[in-house]
Amino acid sequence: MSLPPSQLAARRRFLKFLAASPLAAFGASAQTPGSEYFVPLTAPKDAFSVMDFEDAARRALPTAHFGYMESGVDDNLTVKANHDAYQHIQLRTRRLIDVSHVDTRVELFGATFDSPIFICPTGAQRMFHPDAEAATARAAKSRNALQILSTVTSVSYEDIAKARGGPVWYQLYAPAKWEQAEHIIKRVEAAGCPALALTVALLGGRNTEAFNRARRADKRDCSECHTGAPGSDLSIRPMFKGLDLTGFQMNPSSLTWDFVDRVKKTTKMMFLLKGLESHEDAKLAVEHGVDGIIVSNHGGRSMETLKPTIESLPEVLDAVNGRIPVFVDGGIRRGSDAIKALALGAKAVGIGRPYLWGLSAFGQPGVERVLEILQAELLLAMRQCGKTSLSDVTPAILSPGK
Ligand SMILES: Cc1cc2nc3c(=O)[nH]c(=O)nc-3n(C[C@H](O)[C@H](O)[C@H](O)COP(=O)(O)O)c2cc1C
Predict the structure, then answer these.
(1) For a surface tag, which of 152, 170, 234, 301 has the fewest beta carbons within 10 Å of its beta carbon?
(2) Annotated catalytic sites, by residue?
(3) pLDDT by residue (tens digit) across 67-118?
(4) Of 120, 169, 203, 294, which is best to mutate to test ligand 1, by the most ligand atoms within 8 angstroms of its C-beta?
(5) 140-144, 158-162, 188-192, 248-252: which has the minimum mean pLDDT?
């Protein structure tokens, strides 16, 4: 059916108006330099979404450091897939329910946190901000959020527990020599660590191509966080103090379930595996007495074209069948992403890059604002779905077939 000329002109005028209106800028492009309504972020309070911190971090950091943070492996396809997968899951609203009070507290191994959104372990945060993991810990304290500290932290476990005002969880990369692993495990346990997460996502090696390109493009010397090639001088890592580092190696490809059994026998801490994605491994984890699983592909930094973690979560949950808590991380950028993972059965959900963007740009206040935005978005999503507590967040809020 063709429209008369007067109506056609009116329609063209309306389309032109829409294209020029602020509505056209909404969506991811609104956070990107070059988009019509883009304004560089100068204070954490001005951020609308956690993505606003990404550009701020890019501007704050040397190319090589930003490249290290952002990159995945090969062509960064797993990084992208982790996030994109959330957009293929739809939520279902419920109306006319009193949602004026929403409780997002979660109990994890006996400790209560205000939000199910936790801070994933990320290494060497002095690369991103001089206050490093201590700034992250103070932000975690102010929001009462769970923080997991990386093996390769720039600040010791003991100092982070002080900054957080209580123990944090610790993530372990397996050293090739058992005595070295034992030394670190005993040290964090003596410092009051309640839970240890062994990361198993990097045992096969990885091709950090985008990072290598960023490093080549940035010739600055950076003795702040490393001497020589990044990662070459492990002796500056506080958690390796007191270790004989001759021939030191982490994440050996020879590692097996024997190591898991040994850790389990060595410690009374809760013991999690971080980096499982299959039902076979989840079943084995339960059989080996593991206390929790973090479904993770290391933020797309371990292997290319992996299944997005949100799509691996169901098979892990099936295998575990409620016997131990299952957590998930990777690609969570909105509260609406978090609620989908929680609805599928995750006990809590982790973020990596978003808080690093906040840290890089503004230190502690940046991390706080990232946590605040995600929490506000999660509350919004819970209210829209008619849910007032996390125990009510079930698959019923997801569209059938998702
Ligand atoms: C810069 C960077 C460093 C990381 N370092 C570690 C680490 O030391 N130990 C670890 O278990 N995971 C590490 N991860 C993976 C995170 O714990 C987490 O699995 C991942 O970042 C979640 O994905 P997201 O960044 O998309 O939120 C790192 C991730 C990034 C981005």
Answers:
(1) 234
(2) 298
(3) 999 999 999 999 999 999 999 999 999 999 999 999 999 999 999 999 999 9
(4) 120
(5) 248-252
List the alpha helices (DSSP H) in 157-240. 157-164, 178-190, 209-216
Apex 366 CA angle, 364 and 367, nearest 5: 65
In the reported structure, the alpha carbon of residue 235 is separated from the centroid of ligand 1 by a whole-number distance in angstroms of 21
Beta strands in 81-191 (DSSP E): 106-108, 111-113, 117-119, 148-149, 169-172
Give the Å distance between the CA of 94 and the centre of ligand 1. Answer: 35
Closest CA to ligand 1's atom 15: 298
Q: Which residue has the tokens 């599928």?
A: 344
Nearest CA to ligand 1 atom 7: 122
Report the predicted TM-score, pTM, of the whole model to 2 decimal places: 0.93
User: Could you tell me which of 151, 129, 146, 263 has the C-alpha nearest to residue 201?
Assistant: 151
- As given in the structure block, the two tokens for residue 358 are 């906040």
The Cα 213–Cα 141 span in angstroms is: 36
Question: With contact defined as beta carbons under 8 Å apart, do 292 and 312 qualify?
Answer: no
**Cα(159)–Cα(191) distance, integer angstroms:** 10
DSSP conformation class of 175: B
